[in-house]
Amino acid sequence: MRRMRSLRAALTAAATAVAALGLTAVSGSPAQAATPLPAHVFAPYFESWTGESPAALSAQSGAKHLTMAFLQTATKGSCTAYWNGDTSLPIDTKSFGADIKTIQSRGGDVIPSFGGYTADTTGTEIADSCTDVDQIAAVYQKVITTYDIPRLDMDIEIDALDNTAGIDRRNKAIKKVQDWAASTGRKLEISYTLPTTTRGLAANGVALLKNAVANGTRVDVANIMTFDYYDNAQHDMAQDTKTAAQGLYDQLAKLYPSKTPAQLWGMIGVTEMPGVDDFGPAETFTLANAKEVYSWAVSKGINMISFWALQRDNGKCPGGGAKDDCSGIEQGTWDFSRIFAPFTSGGTAPSDDFSLAASPASGTVKAGNSATSTVRTSVTAGTAKTVDLKVSGAPAGVTASLSPSSVTAGETSTLTVSTTAAAVNGTYDIVVTGTSPSAAHSTTYSLTVTGGSGNQCTAAPWASGTVYTGGQQVSHKGHNWKAKWWTTGEEPGSTGQWGVWQDLGAC
């Protein structure tokens, strides 16, 4: 339940704090006291540029908390931040506000994240882009009050990690916002997400934290990215997570000598990448690794487990490399989320639980025909309970139904997918969600439609000399693509998951 201060007291305190800190008030509303995050939280990254609903994926995956990626400026030199640098997605309740409120109403929350690889390499990370500390602080404040959230994340890597002026501005701005939050009775946490070696932070990461200490800036969580080591070695990714975190612990102990061991471990977060990371198969984080990391994290009492990213938590591209929308290994949809979800609040798995799987998990249908798949459930803990089944994701010209729509765990249902001649060619994820009194899981049936009278490639062909802005779509080499931010000359599909173009699928 959210604690509200009286309107008069909050307005008075907020006005006093704004005047003292030199910040510009972002609205006439009082600062609410956001519900603090649990002491131990699982908060995977959500790729906010895909057009998907964070609330829907939170429910399907069971991840109650999400780290929302990313906030950045549209152009270098700007002091205005947008989601993904997309000017159509400003810091406003119209941008993800309804989804965030839904997540909060379910007992979860989101952690907006500034920066990320693209912003950090293009000068559009807010503290690299903007040279006015007060304006940077005002942007942080606006995110906090617009979405009523208890934590901000700073994802600082590559070029931004060596920008000492930007680092100093960022920490000074954070300190201003922390002072404002304290004066208005708001609980606010700050996390830094940083690249790591297998033995802890590199020198520039330590220097960033030293600057925070020098500025009196409180860092609540140092969250290390335990993947993409690029050292040409074969890796045990679970063991590397442990050694990297131990190295970070030793570094934090020197920076914060008054903290106890429990407090130091409580400052640490780890972010994994499910399956094959960007380096390749030598750095593959498996389901067995995830279970090992989970047990270790509980034993150490670390603050957070995360992974990049929620949209990768499925097995639709086994044997492949790192992609935005799949892990590259054989797995069920949301397998990693299910392993890590109980970490929040130190919880445990439901006493009565079940699994859900579609067999076969994919099929190809000529428009006008139909296909079936068996949805299997089984008891994984406790006793069998009633599981209500729903299906979603069917595109125009396709209907999907389940018979029966309610089963007892251990029984099966038949998924029938029917298409019309007007169905649009392409591949679609049909999601079956099962809900019992104590748990919820989902599975995905990948449907490929051929021979339809429709065609997904309705977007204009990509042209190398054309300027595209975030959200614009093109067709290229049999796929549809959506621009994540401003671009010109970058060929869709040529720069991998870190490139500007989001692959929307074959057509």
From TrEMBL:
GO terms for cellular component: extracellular region. GO terms for molecular function: carbohydrate binding; chitin binding; endochitinase activity. GO terms for biological process: chitin catabolic process; polysaccharide catabolic process. It comes from Streptomyces silvensis. Residues 1-33 form the signal peptide. The keyword Nucleotide-binding does not apply. It catalyses: Random endo-hydrolysis of N-acetyl-beta-D-glucosaminide (1->4)-beta-linkages in chitin and chitodextrins. This is chitinase. The keyword Ribonucleoprotein does not apply. InterPro entries: CBM5/12, CBM_sf_5/12, GH, GH18_Chitinase, Glyco_hydro18_cat, TAT_signal. SUPFAM superfamilies: (Trans)glycosidases, Carbohydrate binding domain. Its EC number is 3.2.1.14. It holds the Pfam family Glyco_hydro_18. Keywords: Carbohydrate metabolism, Chitin degradation, Chitin-binding, Glycosidase, Hydrolase, Polysaccharide degradation, Signal. Residues 40-347 form the GH18 domain.
